[in-house]
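WARN no homologs supplied; continuing
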Amino acid sequence: MLQAERDRVGDVYEGNYGNEEFQERTRKRIDWICEQTVGEEILDVGCSQGIVGLLLARAGKNVLAIDIDAENIAYAEEHLAGEPADVQKRVQYLCADFLNYDLQDAAFDCILLTEVLEHLEAPEACLEKISGLLRPDGQVLVMVPFGINPHPDH
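OK structure emitted
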């Protein structure tokens, strides 16, 4: 993936990329995602630069955040290193292909799948895997882009 095409949601959220209006819209979207998250054990599939996992860990949630892009995970881990120890121990960033990664007997209260499905050739496989990881009273939060987006996957 070219750097120009890389998702920079962490940079935007922190005010390091784009204009103020874009930052405000991004912050509202990310904050809304965090507000909708239920339970204590969270899985963030396709976590990008890890900002949601970081914010949830700051709020006391335990988060496993997975992304296939090593640069995104490196960014997330670099930002996590500057956090207090109690936040650091609550979030784990993992560079892996979610569909092929064995989570063994893990179970989650909430699974986040935000702006991921539109990138998958077989989204049903992802949804099936998620359904096996969700606790019986758990919640899945799915978001896909709405409207016209110049990215070819959207």
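The radius of gyration is 15 Å.
OK
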